[in-house]
Design goal:
314 residues, alpha+beta, five-stranded mixed sheet, 9 helices, 16 strands, 37% helix, elongated
C-alpha cells in the first residue's frame, strides 16, 4: 500500500514539475530587414498610404537557405523545450490572401478593418512568441562566417523580450550549419530572457488592450446608469474581478469611448484553453448581454493583442 502511495505521489510531483517547466510556443520568421535586403516585400494601400510588408510566402518559395535555417534554429529551441509552430505551413494555407483581401466589414455601417499579413498569421497560429532572424554571409581568406541577430517579440504587445547577436567563426560549412552552431553557443542568455518573460506572464497575466466604443445610433452611452452606477464603472468592476490581480489601466475615456491598457488576462480560461484578447472580450460581451444591461454588442480584433467592443448592435 505504501509503495502504491509513493508511486502516486511521484507521478503527481512529476506532472506538477512538467507543467511548471512548460515553455511557451514560438514561431520563427525572417526579419523585416532580411526580407527587404532580398526584395521579399509587398506593398498595399492602407487608407491612402502605401505600406511595405514582408512577403513571407515568396521568401519561403524562392530562398533555399530560409527553410533550412529555420529548421536548424527551431531544432535548437525545441531541444530546450519550446513548442515550435510551423510558419511555412501556415503561410501556405493563407497564400491566396493578401493584406487588401483581409478586410472586415461592419454589418451595419460598412466600416472596415485592415490587417497586415503578419497580423493574420499571428491570429491564426496563436504562438506566444515570434522570433525574427537576420543573417549575412561574410567571406574571408579562411572561408566564410555569418553575422546573425535573433529577436523575440511578444505576439500580443509586439514588445521585444529577448535578443541575441554575434558572428560565427570562419568555416567552410553552409549557412544553416553555421547558424545552428552560433545559436547553440549564444542560446543560454536568450533562453533565460524568454523564460523570465514567460514566468512573468504566468504570474502577472498576459497583457492586452481593450477598447469599448458605441455605435452612433445607440440610444445609450457609457454614462448611462444601471442600478445607480455609470456603465463605465460597471465595466471597470467586471475588469477588476476578471483580470489577474485586478491589473488594468483606464487610460482614456469619454461618454462614448473607453480605453483600457495593460489589461492582464489569465493565460488559460476556466476550461484550460489558451485565453486571448478576443476570448476575454467575448466574456465581457456576454456579461453585458445579461440583465440589467441587456446590451447587444460586437467584438472586433486589431491584431492579436487588442480587442474592440462596440456597444449597441452587431
Amino acid at each position: 500500500m505504501r509503495a502504491k502511495s509513493w508511486l502516486i505521489g511521484f507521478v503527481l510531483l512529476f506532472s506538477f514539475c512538467a507543467f511548471a517547466q512548460k515553455k511557451p510556443t514560438i514561431m520563427i520568421l525572417p526579419s523585416d530587414n532580411w526580407c527587404n535586403q532580398r526584395y521579399f516585400m509587398s506593398s498595399f494601400s492602407n487608407q491612402g498610404s502605401t505600406v511595405k510588408v514582408p512577403n513571407y510566402q515568396q521568401a519561403f518559395m524562392e530562398d533555399t537557405e530560409l527553410p533550412q535555417v529555420i529548421s536548424k534554429v527551431g531544432g535548437v529551441l525545441t531541444g530546450l523545450g519550446y513548442s515550435l509552430k510551423d510558419a511555412e505551413q501556415e503561410i501556405k494555407s493563407i497564400a491566396t490572401k493578401t493584406a487588401e483581401d483581409n478586410v472586415t466589414f461592419s454589418k451595419t455601417s460598412g466600416a472596415t478593418l485592415n490587417e497586415t499579413p503578419l497580423d493574420v498569421l499571428k491570429r491564426r497560429v496563436k504562438s506566444d512568441i515570434i522570433i525574427q532572424i537576420w543573417w549575412k554571409l561574410n567571406r574571408d581568406s579562411k572561408g566564410h562566417s555569418a553575422s546573425f541577430t535573433l529577436e523575440a517579440f511578444d505576439t500580443y504587445t509586439n514588445k521585444r523580450i529577448a535578443t541575441s547577436t554575434g558572428t560565427t567563426k570562419s568555416s567552410k560549412e553552409g549557412i544553416p550549419v553555421l547558424l545552428e552552431q552560433a545559436v547553440k553557443e549564444n542560446i543560454k542568455p536568450f533562453d533565460e530572457q524568454m523564460s523570465r518573460w514567460y514566468d512573468e506572464q504566468k504570474k502577472k497575466g498576459r497583457e492586452i488592450v481593450l477598447t469599448v466604443r458605441c455605435w452612433d445610433n445607440w440610444e445609450n452611452d457609457l454614462e448611462t446608469e444601471y442600478d445607480g452606477n455609470e456603465l463605465t464603472d460597471c465595466i471597470q468592476d467586471w475588469l477588476a474581478e476578471h483580470t489577474v490581480n485586478s491589473s488594468y489601466n483606464y487610460s482614456d475615456g469619454t461618454e462614448t469611448f473607453a480605453q483600457f491598457e495593460q489589461v492582464r488576462i489569465p493565460l488559460l480560461d476556466e476550461r484550460g484553453r489558451a485565453m486571448d484578447a478576443r476570448a476575454f472580450a467575448t466574456e465581457l460581451r456576454k456579461y453585458l448581454q445579461k440583465p440589467p444591461y441587456n446590451i447587444t454588442s460586437k467584438v472586433m480584433m486589431r491584431g492579436l493583442g487588442e480587442a474592440i467592443i462596440v456597444l449597441g448592435e452587431k
